[in-house]
Amino acid sequence: MKLSRNDEEFITNISEILEEKQRSGVISTNDISPEEVQRLLASTSPDLAMVGSYILSLLPYESVVSTIKKDSVSARNYARFLIAEKPSPQAENIVKEDSSKYPFLLNHYKELSSRLMPSVHKAAKAVPKQEMTMIIHGTWAATSTWWQEGGNFWNYINGITGNVYGGKDVFSWSGANKHKDRIKAAHHLIDWINTHPCTHLDIIAHSHGGNVCLFATRLGLKIRKLITLGTPVRLEYLPDLRNIEILYNVFSTRDLVQTPAGTFPNRRAEGRTFGDGRSVINLRAEDDGHGGQPGHSELHEPDTWKACGLNKIL
Q: Are residues 149 and 285 in the same domain?
């Protein structure tokens, strides 16, 4: 969904506030009001909602949740946030405490949490080794459907490659906006691959899902082709390129989530691109298929891929 000029200016101003305040390490509701967070979380734009979740992860969330829970749309994104950021029992208890006053919050929580894949991967049955493509989601997207079997992006990519992994034991991670969660996910990704062997592994990863993969290469994971979509380029996740045959880094200058807010605290340059090299190719996506440049979430939309000819890199 194309953002209005007012929305773009609003996000740019918030990003500047976050950049300044994160240097001092202090962000409060004096800088960003609960009403502003609620407005973002209630937006029909996935990118604005993601920025709202990002701000929520930086603020003492107790100071803004009473405002958020009054609206069903923002409450839904709040439930998604809780599922990613809190241990399951704690998240469920938080929701149940508010269920009498905000019944739609509990309904959202149940519906979203039911989409989660099992976090413990059982050993795979012996299967012939073959080429395999994986789609890995980013922050707060574990409960989304676009990357799962039957989702619009999964269907599009599988329609081209015919080998995208699906099923109940598909790899997923918490999606929490924390460094430790990405590192934990990188270790789990290697464990998952060890139980799902293949001759050649290709991965398409969105947002911080890309950083999960990049860090995993430093732990020894070998990837034939890695396609990152709007991944914040940060120093702590720089890859071991010896373990990646080719890396396509797809970005858009209209992506207001990737940078600057999404690249702190250890950003690298502008946070959008890697240095070009023999095995690294940066690709700018300039067409969302609807007359505009793609935003963060639109980088995993089939319309963007078709308009930009990204199918050629598969």
A: yes
Final residue of a structural domain among 51, 85, 113: 113
Please answer whether residues 272 and 259 qualify as being in contact, where contact means their C-beta atoms are separated by less than 8 angstroms: yes
What would the pLDDT profile of 17-51 be if each residue is shown by its tens digit? 777 766 666 678 888 888 989 999 999 889 999 98
Pairwise CA distance, residues 27 & 174, whole Å: 24
* Residue 262, pLDDT above cutoff 80: no
Q: How many domains does the chain have?
A: 2
Judgement on whether residues 289 and 169 belong to the same structural domain of the protein? yes
Residue 248 lies in a domain: yes
Rg, C-alpha atoms of the chain = 19
pLDDT of residue 102: 87
The domain containing residue 255 runs over which residues? 131-313
185 shares its domain with 309: yes
Beta strand pairing status for 200-206 and 223-229?
parallel
**Residues 64/74, Cβ–Cβ less than 8 Å:** no
Are the C-beta atoms of 191 and 122 separated by less than 8 Å?
no
Encoded tokens for 181? 């969660």
| Closest to 180 in 3D by CA, of 215, 142, 130, 207 | 215
Q: Does residue 305 belong to any structural domain of this protein? A: yes
Give the Å distances, CA to CA, from 313 to 117, 152, 234, 235.
Answer: 29, 19, 24, 26
* Cβ–Cβ under 8 Å, residues 170 and 148: yes
Query: For residue 137, is it within any domain?
Result: yes
Judge whether 76 lies within some domain. yes
Average pLDDT over residues 57-81: 88
CATH of the domain at 264: 3.40.50.1820
Across the beta sheet with 200-206, the strand order is 131-136, 200-206, 223-229, 244-251, 280-284
Give the H or E element holding residue 225: strand 223-229
